[in-house]
TrEMBL record:
Record's compositionally biased regions (Polar residues): 37-66, 129-150
Organism superkingdom: Eukaryota
Species annotation: Aegilops tauschii subsp. strangulata
Domain Tr-type G as annotated: residue spans: 184-413
Keywords noted in UniProt: GTP-binding, Methylation, Nucleotide-binding
Protein name, as recorded: Tr-type G domain-containing protein
Source taxonomy: Eukaryota, Viridiplantae, Streptophyta, Embryophyta, Tracheophyta
Ranges of biased composition (kind: Basic and acidic residues): 68-81
PANTHER family: TRANSLATION FACTOR
Length: 619
């Protein structure tokens, strides 16, 4: 119980947010009392305060360049898929740190990736923020959060962190050059949605229809799935490659695969739907330019996706939609799957459109940016061509999924800013010793021979080669999802959650942050001292809400007095302290590094943006 000296009328301690003893004893609110105890004992998030479990991998397998059996998306298993394992694990072998299982709230074991190195996570006084032109960077700020937050204005950074004077960044000519001739633009497409809605089946089926899976591999998958009594998962096995994923029949990590449409080279990011793996989804799907939200149309399943099992919580259809919008994704295809299970009923589709449509609107998806595609992945209806089933064709004349993908617009790419590449994975080849950092270039460009600053270790490395979809390319620009083979740096110095950036324009590394957040549907109020999981790009870090600065009204105006706790649907400015510093940037300067998510007890409790990076003494 709190020992601070508070006024007796106070329900909560002003210093730590804990309830006054007398109040708790009075039993006025048992549920809140339990939550407070939960916070102080970290019951829901206990693993987080243990440094051993604060860094979650987005993926569970050990990976290397040589396509060993554990490698996710090893090209050995799907020659034509050519998919490279991404979105995930650290170079644990290279760091000599063994991966250990981490137990999620409901005892789902996950392996732990490389520890972030605390020695290199101090905010340096002279380490400024990205120096890219602020006018360009500020444009259209806030549009990525939900409606209330998106209307708020971002104050200019008034952080008093000593920084060198910004120097104008001038991109070199080759960085801005047009798209290489004959090379399709890359579109990063996240596949999200409630567990078992058919995301992996749909992805696998698309790959198969587009010739990315050989007959031999498909036959092998079908045979093995049948033998294991999982015949209906044959297509999903193209994405779910690990033994555990196959045995459990669920996706656990974000799987990456490539396919080509008329217009795009699509990077498919097939995300896990199970609620225990939302952290993996956050790490992998933050790279998305657009998303396909897969919905199971069958009776009861759509409802579970909306309101959770038993209808009493938030299903992952809603949670994923909210998250993906908060990642900045504006364009959404809603794939209403398993239409075969409801006899291709138009009425059911309309019902789903009305219910989900109104939720998507509340997440600030514009109606015009949402495309509804009814389909059946299993019966191959409406995927790459118009449907053939008479029950479907009798009323449907719309687009097929492939055409809907080609109708997506590429978001603008910030090639004229300094390089920022958040590292989602690091792989070291056992045989050649080559070291590859995987990730999507958020801004800028690199080519063979470019010098890059590796953060948080602050060492400069040289780009030896770049690989895109397993084939080498000479240049990668903003938007490209690539493997960067580095030389001149020790493998143990580079970690997932780190950043490759321009040596003259380092990204801040900090653990005291001010955020503007929108609180989602929560059962337990957020108090000062609340322990949360802080997610930002490919990092998950244990954190504490250290101050609630103000409530924000719909216009973004802060309240004069700070509230003592936050509840559902409120917008607020809060300060958080992270156990260890992370590479982070103010949202107004780099959106990808300034979007944060707060999670607790297995649920996302708030989405937000970083508005200020602070030093300890400013906190
Ligand atoms: P997670 O990744 O674990 O969230 O699941 P998922 O969304 O990837 O679902 P998955 O592709 O693994 O499919 C789950 C089950 O739904 C499997 O048994 C599939 O055969 C089945 N399924 C997928 N698509 C369809 C469909 O169009 N119709 C029917 N009837 N079943 C489908
Ligand atoms: Mg799946």
């Amino acid at each position: 119980m709190c020992t601070f000296d508070n006024h007796e009328t106070m329900v909560y301690c002003e210093m730590c947010g804990v309830f006054r003893e007398s109040f708790v004893k009075s039993g006025k609110d048992v549920s809140i009392k339990e939550s407070v105890n939960g916070i102080s004992n970290n019951s829901g998030t206990s693993a987080l305060s243990n440094s051993d479990s604060t860094k979650m991998p987005a993926k569970t397998s050990t990976t290397n360049f040589d396509g060993d059996s554990e490698r996710k998306y090893a090209s050995t298993s799907h020659d034509k898929v050519n998919s490279t394992q991404l979105a995930s694990v650290g170079s644990s072998s290279s760091t000599g740190k063994k991966k250990q299982p981490v137990i999620f709230d409901n005892n789902v074991p996950i392996e732990r990736t490389t520890q972030l190195n605390a020695d290199h996570f101090q905010l340096k006084e002279d380490q400024g923020s990205s120096r890219a032109s602020s006018s360009a960077q500020n444009k259209g700020s806030m549009e990525t959060l939900s409606s209330d937050i998106s209307q708020l204005s971002i104050e200019r950074n008034n952080v008093n962190v000593a920084q060198p004077l910004p120097e104008e960044y001038k991109p070199e000519g080759w960085m801005l050059a047009d798209q290489e001739s004959g090379v399709l633009s890359q579109l990063n497409l996240a596949i999200v949605g409630h567990v078992d809605s058919g995301k992996s089946t749909l992805s696998g089926r698309l790959l198969h229809l587009l010739g990315k899976i050989s007959k031999r591999d498909m036959h092998k998958n079908e045979k093995e799935a049948k033998e294991k009594g999982k015949g209906s998962f044959a297509y999903a096995w193209a994405m779910d490659e690990s033994t555990e994923e196959r045995a459990r029949g669920i996706t656990m990590t974000v799987a990456v695969a490539y396919l080509e449409t008329k217009k795009y080279r699509v990077v498919l990011l097939d995300s896990p739907g199970h609620k225990d793996f939302v952290p993996n989804l956050i790490s992998g799907a933050t790279q998305a330019d657009a998303a396909i939200l897969v919905v199971d149309a069958s009776t009861g399943s759509f409802e579970s996706g909306m309101d959770g099992e038993g209808g009493k919580s938030v299903g992952q259809t809603k949670e994923h939609a909210q998250l993906i919008r908060s990642f900045g994704v504006e364009q959404l295809i809603v794939a209403v799957n398993k239409m075969d299970a409801i006899g291709y009923s138009k009425d059911r589709l309309e019902f789903i459109k009305v219910r989900l449509g109104s939720f998507l609107r509340s997440c600030n998806f514009r109606d015009s940016a949402v495309t509804w595609i009814p389909l059946s992945a299993v019966e191959n209806q409406n995927l790459i061509k118009s449907p053939s089933d008479a029950r479907f064709t009798s009323w449907y004349q719309g687009s097929c999924l492939l055409d809907a993908i080609d109708s997506l617009q590429l978001p603008s790419r910030d090639v004229s800013k300094p390089l920022i590449l958040p590292i989602c994975d690091v792989i070291k080849s056992q045989s050649t010793g080559q070291l590859a950092a995987f990730g999507k270039l958020e801004t800028g460009a690199i080519r063979n021979g470019s010098k890059v600053l590796v953060l948080p270790c602050e060492e400069v490395a040289t780009v030896k080669t770049i690989e895109r979809d397993s084939s080498s390319c000479s240049i990668a620009r903003a938007g490209d999802n690539v493997a960067v083979i580095l030389q001149g740096i020790d493998g143990s110095r580079i970690i997932p959650g780190g950043i490759l950036c321009h040596p003259g324009f380092p990204v801040p590394v900090a653990n005291y942050l001010e955020l503007k957040i929108r609180v989602l549907d929560i059962a337990i109020p957020i108090l000062i001292g609340y322990q949360v999981e802080f997610h930002i790009h490919h990092v998950k870090e244990a954190a504490r809400v250290t101050k609630i600065v103000a409530l924000l009204d719909k216009t973004g105006k802060p309240s004069k007095t700070a509230p003592r706790f936050l509840k559902s649907k409120q917008n607020a400015v809060v300060q958080v302290t992270l156990d260890q510093a992370v590479c982070v940037e103010e949202f107004s300067k780099c959106r990808a590094l300034g979007r944060a998510f707060l999670r607790s007890s297995g649920s996302t409790i708030a989405v937000g943006i970083v508005t200020k990076i602070m030093r300890q003494d400013q906190h």
